[in-house]
Amino acid sequence: MNEFEKSVQSKRNDAIDSGIGFVASFGFFATIFIIATVIQLIGS
Q1: Angle at the Cα of 32 (from 38 to 17), degrees rounded to 5?
Q2: Where is the chain membrane-spanning (predicted)?
Q3: CA-CA distance, 16 to 10, in Å (whole number)?
Q4: What is the pTM of this model?
Q5: What is the pLDDT along the chain (44 residues), one digit of tens a residue?
Q6: How far is CA 32 from the centre of its chain?
Q7: Rg of the chain on CA atoms, in Å
Q8: Would you state the pLDDT for residue 38?
């Protein structure tokens, strides 16, 4: 057995963590896009 498998820090499912990371990054870029769209509408 691999020595790293003996002392696992987190026993949570990796799919949950990757899903949270995807949603967080998507929300960040969506917020930037919405802010840029609002600025463009104000400027025109």
Answers
A1: 145
A2: 20-42
A3: 12
A4: 0.65
A5: 677 778 778 788 889 999 999 999 999 999 999 999 999 999 99
A6: 14
A7: 19
A8: 98
